[in-house]
Amino acid sequence: MTGKERVLKVFQHEKADNVPWVPFAGVHAGKLIGVSAKEVYTDLDKLTKSLLEAHRLYIPDGQPVMFDLQIEAEALGCDLLWSEDSPPTVTSHPLESDKTIPDTIPGPEDGRIPMALEAARRLSKEVGSDTALYGLFCGPFTLASHLRGTNIFMDFFDDPDYVMQLIDYTTRIGEAMAGYYAEAGADILASVDPLVSQISPDHFEQFLNAPYTRLFDTIRSMKRYSSFFVCGDATKNIEEMCKTKPDGISIDENINIAEAKKVTDRYNIVMAGNIPLATVMLFGTQQDNMKIVIEELDAVDNTNLIVSPGCDMPYDIPVENTVGCEQAVHQTDQTRELVANYSAEVPDVEIDIPDYENLPRPLVEVFTIDSDTCAACTYMFQSALDAKRQYGDGLDVVEYKTTKSLENIVRANKMGVKQLPSIYINGELKFSSIIPSREALNKEIEAVRN
After folding, report:
1. Where are the beta strands (DSSP E) in 196-354?
2. Angle at alpha carbon of residue 416, lines to 325 and 287, rounded to 5°
3. Within 90-244, where are the H helices?
4. What is the DSSP letter of 64?
5. Among 197, 235, 327, 363, which residue's beta carbon has the most beta carbons within 10 A?
6. Residue 92: which region, alpha, beta or left (left: phi > 0; alpha: psi -120 to 50)?
7. What domains are defined for the chain?
8. Taking the model in full, what pTM does it have?
9. pLDDT truncated to tens, each residue of the chain (450 aa)?
């Protein structure tokens, strides 16, 4: 059975010969051929070469073309900040001060969309017969946030009709992108919407249920399978996501996959995830990666299951760690024997914790995956920076990116951080995987001011 047949069998809710393996090597694919993140996402030849190298090394059953949630935003006029080792970040929001919703839908010739589609066509020609290709596009809510900025969280309360109109517009863009990828040869059309974890089930039902149901109906009409990607602790919204009838749901390490799969199994929806990106894939050993995959396979019913990283793989993940994951999926029994007696080493890193009782001014600490790569992290950190601009020297703000250093992971563990992103104020958790409104954050800051 080919990898593509394996993935499609699972999406058809039939038994395959093995659980499928889908490594989300976005900018990390560029690392494999020695080019930067910016090069791999702006140069078609380098992108294609990196994807084929990821295919050679990681033996995927399914593979994404690009994992860049800024392509649509860029085509709509958002400015981007580029990095050498991560996807670009949206730095401007065209609708931040002017709420006029555009009526144009980006076409297959706009911005970097043609590059993504041509890469899909090339990959389909080279490996599409034996590998299921994923066409990833920015989800409606995250795209709306790229356009409107953090103001959208206040709009929920101040102007809900506007939010509905804006998300209707971004959903139409999602439908268009899905169609472009389908024509280019993608088998799975995936809406990647990390900010879904930042809203309540009530707001999901109010603003996203109808648009997402329509989006997945549209994808079904294309005779393709759909997947609903979410990042952060979206535990509270898993059932709401299921109600929109995607074919699959993909989650990250913030969610307990065994508990979430109980919900998706009730709806007969494929679950994908959720190998931890930083603690295991980036900073762990090959044995750590093997063991975490074996533990996942042993923790859940292996039907309706795809093993994958929790999200877009960090640029600097060691090749041997991803290879270890692949071996654990495709050679499970042998790998189980290899790691049967293995125990992960506890990092020996000293961390200085601030003296929270005697701070000269309030301290806002934002624990993130990386605000340069994770949309939910971007907007949570932005809310803290907005507060910093308001309070100036009367407030200290710091970000700890867990994908950037082992020290930040150890700090998060010592602080008891359970979900990313989270905001601590003077050492106390105030917002966990939920972006605060300006008023809510200011209220917590005022409560600790001297």
Report:
1. 225-229, 248-250, 270-275, 305-309
2. 20
3. 113-127, 140-148, 151-158, 160-184, 201-203, 209-221, 238-243
4. E
5. 197
6. beta
7. 3-338 (3.20.20.210), 356-448 (3.40.30.10)
8. 0.89
9. 999 999 999 999 999 999 999 999 999 999 999 999 999 999 999 999 999 999 999 999 999 999 999 999 999 999 999 989 999 999 999 999 999 999 999 999 999 999 999 999 999 999 999 999 999 999 999 999 999 998 999 999 999 999 999 999 999 999 999 999 999 999 999 999 999 999 999 999 999 999 999 999 999 999 999 999 999 899 999 999 999 999 999 999 999 999 999 999 999 999 999 999 988 999 999 999 999 999 999 999 999 999 999 999 999 999 999 999 999 999 999 999 999 998 877 667 888 899 999 999 999 999 998 887 778 888 889 899 999 999 999 999 999 998 888 899 899 888 998 888 899 999 999 998 888 888 899 999 999 986
The C-alpha atoms of residue 416 and residue 67 are separated, in whole angstroms, by: 30
Q: What's the length of the chain?
A: 450
DSSP state of 21: B
372, 83 Cβ separation under 8 angstroms: yes
Closest CA to 420 of 440, 442, 402: 402
* Residue bearing tokens 């889908």: 22
d(CA 80, CA 92): 7
Query: One-letter amino acid identity for 393?
Result: D
Burial of 268 (0-12, 13-18, 19+ CB in 10 A): exposed
CA–CA distance, 430 with 445 (Å, rounded to integer): 10
Q: Which residue has the tokens 């005022």?
A: 446
Tokens 């949309």 map to which residue? 375
Identify the sign of the CA torsion 315, 180, 173, 309. Answer: negative
Amino acid at site 392: G
- 265 close to 272: Cβ distance less than 8 angstroms: no
Q: Is 396 helix (H, G, I), strand (E, B) or coil?
A: strand
Nearest to 364 by CA among 282, 298, 443: 443
